[in-house]
Design goal:
Blueprint lengths: L12 E9 L8 H15 L2 E6 L3 H11 L8 E9 L7 E3 L5 E4 H9 L9 E6 L3 E3 L27 E5 L4 E2 L2 E3 L4 H13 L5 H14 L12 E4 L17 E4 L2 E2 L22 E3 L52 H30 E11 L3 H16 L2 E9 L2 E9 L2 H18 L6 E11 L2
Parallel strand pairs: 1-2, 1-3, 2-12, 3-6, 6-8, 7-9
Antiparallel strand pairs: 4-5, 8-11, 10-14, 12-13, 15-18, 16-17
Helix pairs in contact: 1-4, 4-5, 7-8
């Protein structure tokens, strides 16, 4: 039977989708790629979870979570998208440039989740896999590319699909817009997920990428995949909840309307934006050109004090005949009344926002850490972090080669932990450069007065 060729999706949830962007601070266009992919995956039905700028510890915490059985008990599949620096020997780097995940090992650990056995496990890797482009030219870099076996194998792991932005040994390009690969992927998913299985969608992505010339030099980039899918994956066969969710650090975003996606035609005739190859990174070119985030419903739109940018959606409209143009119907009168009501609500909200802005006071805390009083300065910084962000911790001091090594033992919000980690990195760097040094750490806090 034809139905036997397709994965069955009887469970309540379509599945969990994890997006990791370790280039969020380094390459700002990647933020557009995250937004576009999250919107499309949510519209398809995934529960999307976004992570940015993860250290090795943060990446391993995410992996530990996604390999828990309970996360997938009601899911029909799993998806992970990683935007990161990459290496020729199939490693993904954390936000600090450390080798963290081997792609084959990552796939193996996810495949070992028993409740996902027989279910599709999808991985999309936006990362470089070497240092060459399609002209076989070595890119200028202070790092040397160590020869290593290219490509990954899926020896005994079934129901896996791994999509790569580029082929082994080659770079993945970035532009001021984002990733050509993720642009094409999001656009083809948006247009064809209801009628076409994933393998054919990725074929369309590869064709589109192969026909796209990037930048003034007309560079090309080729995507590829490794697949051990045993059936066709058609997302439309999922008949459960049609609208997924998007969350980031515990914050749930408003549902994304799939019907409002803007999908213009081919842009091959227009000049491509400039590109800049990144030696070991998987850069991007945003899908905002194809898939802008739609404006919220009128009752939720931002006030004039903080307008939300959006791209208009091209649609075909039907107009009334000339005999009816000057004769408003009861429906149009009702619509006009609703419009005026919405305008009144918007004006009221604008006044409230302005009043709240007047009540907000920003307080800046400045902490100095000096070479002569390192421990005292770090303790002062820790106390201020606990006051501002909460949590508990202490400063730890060890001696190594007659030099004091400092660290924090801190349990609290991630933002506070990142700030303290950055302070320790500054101390280590300055200790290696000079005996006399000082750095200043600032914390800005907003208070609302009555």
């Amino acid at each position: 039977m034809e139905g036997d060729l397709y994965y069955q999706m009887p469970r309540k949830r379509l599945g969990h989708a994890v997006i990791i962007n370790n280039l969020d601070r380094e390459q700002l266009p990647t933020r557009r790629d995250v937004s576009s992919m999250a919107a499309v995956l949510q519209a398809i039905g995934f529960d999307v979870e976004i992570h940015r700028n993860l250290t090795s510890q943060g990446m391993n915490l995410v992996k530990r979570k996604v390999t828990e059985e309970k996360l997938h008990r009601e899911a029909n599949c799993f998806l992970m998208l990683v935007i990161s620096h990459g290496t020729a020997d199939n490693f993904l780097l954390d936000c600090e440039g450390n080798k963290t995940w081997n792609i084959e090992s990552l796939v193996t650990e996810v495949c070992d989740v028993q409740v996902l056995v027989g279910k599709p496990k999808l991985f999309f890797i936006e990362a470089c896999r070497g240092k060459e482009n399609n002209f076989s030219m070595k890119l200028m870099s202070k790092d040397k590319c160590v020869p290593a076996p290219c490509g990954i194998t899926l020896p005994s792991k079934q129901d896996v699909f791994v999509g790569f932005a580029t082929v082994p040994g080659f770079v993945s390009f970035t532009s001021t817009d984002g990733s050509p690969y993720l642009q094409a992927l999001a656009k083809e998913l948006a247009e064809h997920h209801a009628t076409t299985d994933l393998s054919d969608i990725h074929l369309l992505v590869k064709r589109k990428l192969a026909m796209t010339r990037l930048g003034e030099e007309g560079v090309r980039q080729g995507a590829e995949e490794r697949s051990s899918l045993l059936s066709k994956l058609l997302f439309a066969r999922y008949q459960g909840r049609c609208q997924g969710t998007v969350s980031e650090k515990g914050r749930i975003k408003a549902p994304f309307s799939f019907l409002s996606l803007s999908l213009p035609g081919s842009r091959s005739s227009s000049p491509a934006p400039p590109i800049r190859p990144h030696p070991l990174a998987a850069p991007q070119r945003p899908l905002s050109a194809f898939l802008p985030t739609p404006p919220p419903p009128p009752a939720q739109q931002a006030s004039p004090a903080s307008p939300a940018p959006h791209t208009s959606v091209s649609r075909s409209l039907s107009f009334p005949s000339s005999a009816l143009v000057n004769r408003p119907s009861p429906v149009s009168r009702k619509a006009e009344e609703e419009r005026r009501g919405v305008q009144g609500q918007e004006e009221q909200r604008r006044v409230q926002v302005q009043e709240e802005q007047r009540r907000v006071q920003n307080v800046t805390h400045v902490i100095e850490v000096k070479s002569s009083e390192v421990e005292a300065g770090l303790n002062e910084l820790l106390d201020k972090v606990k006051e501002v962000y909460g949590g508990e911790g202490k400063v730890k001091v060890k001696k190594k080669n007659k030099q004091k090594v400092y660290s924090f033992k801190y349990t609290g919000p991630e933002r506070g932990a990142h700030l303290l980690e950055g302070a320790i990195r500054n101390v280590k760097e300055l200790q290696g450069k000079s005996e006399l040094w000082k750095f200043t750490q600032t914390l800005e806090v907003s208070h609302i007065t009555n």
